[in-house]
Amino acid sequence: MFPATATSPVFCPKCWWSDGWDAFAYGQDFDFGSPFFEQFQKLMMKVPKMAFLQLSNENSDYSSFIAFSRNTYMCPGSFFLEDCYFARRCQYSKDCVNSAYLDHCELVSESINSKNCYDGSNMQNCRNCSSCHYMADSTGCQNCFMCGNLSNKKFYIKNQQYSEAEYNKMVDYKMKLPTKELASEFEEFNKTLPKKYQSQINCENSSGDYIQNCKNAQECYDSFEIEDCKYMVECVAVKDSMDLSMHDKDIELCYEVCSGGDSNNNLKFSFCSCTSVNSQYLHSCFSLQDSFGCDGVHTKQTNCILNKKYSKEAYEELKGRIIEHMKKTGEYGEFFPIQISPHPYNNTTAHDYFPITREEALKNGYKWEEKDVSQYQPSTKHIPQNIKEASDSITNEIFACENCKKNYRIIAQELNLCRKLNQPLSRLCADCRQLRLQKLKNNRKLYLGVCSKCSHEIKTTYPPEKQKNVCCEQCYLKEII
Known about the structure:
Layout: E1 10-11, H1 13-17, H2 36-46, E2 49-50, E3 54-55, E4 66-67, E5 70-73, E6 79-88, E7 91-103, E8 106-109, E9 112-115, E10 118-124, E11 133-136, E12 142-148, E13 154-157, E14 160-161, H3 164-174, H4 179-191, E15 195-196, E16 200-201, E17 208-212, E18 215-218, E19 220-233, E20 236-239, E21 242-245, E22 248-252, E23 255-261, E24 265-274, E25 277-283, E26 288-289, E27 292-295, E28 301-302, E29 304-305, E30 308-309, H5 312-329, H6 349-353, H7 358-363, E31 399-400, E32 407-408, H8 412-421, H9 430-438, E33 447-450, E34 457-460, E35 470-471, H10 473-477
Parallel strand pairs: 1-2, 3-4, 5-6, 6-7, 7-8, 7-9, 8-10, 10-11, 11-12, 12-13, 15-35, 16-17, 17-19, 18-19, 19-20, 19-21, 20-22, 21-23, 23-24, 24-25, 25-27, 26-28
Antiparallel strand pairs: 13-14, 29-30, 31-32, 33-34
């Protein structure tokens, strides 16, 4: 995941996790004449980085931030996946493709924010649905097509009941149409349906969107099992924490941490660290406790500063002095500055949510990856509309994304799964596939508004120009069919 211009050594995951190198060989003394972040950047430039951040995977070389998965490809931020491709931030799922935020799903494609679904496609915010296609905000449905706001229905098309024979005939015809045409038709139909002000399931005193089983969770998004927290994004099983993103499993008393997880407690201002306790300013560290400002430590250690080991007494004394120094320089309490990131801004999800121009990025001191013209060649073959027309040789071809024109390829596993799902191959590159799914969701921001039914004041993720059919929870439940 690092660009060719990266200054740090880059190891494959197997070598990075091995005993073949020692993170403490790069240790350095703290210099009270220089800002902390400058010293930490020097450390980052020396310590080897893991090419893809992975933990306990099999045959998943081309996925990053992934754990306990097998046979995956381009599935960042996921865990416990099997035979999944281009599936971002998914968990406990199998045979899924071109999707995001799936939980316990199987044979699902082109879907987002769905749980316990089987054999479906183009689903948005659905639960316990099977053999459903082009669905939104529905629960417990079977064999439904182009519907929304349904509960426990069968053989419905555009929220109308049909006989099984009529349903099969109409859906067989529809599914032969171009996917763009179907997507556009569904989008227009979906706009006519009432929408819930926030997507919450089994939550108490909480705000945000796409959250489940949360209590006292304020402004949290795409998160589950959150309690007494604020400003969470894509987090699971977190308590008493604030300002976290992509942090999972038994997290408590953490602040300003990005990625990682698994039993972190009292961890602050850190990136991609796991099983770390009472520590601050860690970067890609594992099982490191009572430490400050370390990078790449992957063995169980305590009382470390800038990758140097200290006695407990010396550590506490030096840490206190460093914190006072950082307060004077205005650094303490701030997350790592973007200027020391090894990644170009336009190659990160930050650019997806907050796009800026090349000129703006360089003006702010951010890195920027220039376009490689060799990756924007014409397609060598046309992708067929029907998956049955795609031969095995299509994996040898190069395609140009119909959106950004960047080249991509079809892998054999993806081809076989699309055949199994009877879904056409994507005409978009990996990045544009995820951007398409992202656009199906509201921004992670709350707006003031009023319920379109009862005029009760609400806070919603729908911006003012899209609040025409937005309802409070009580009024929305009355609209469920």
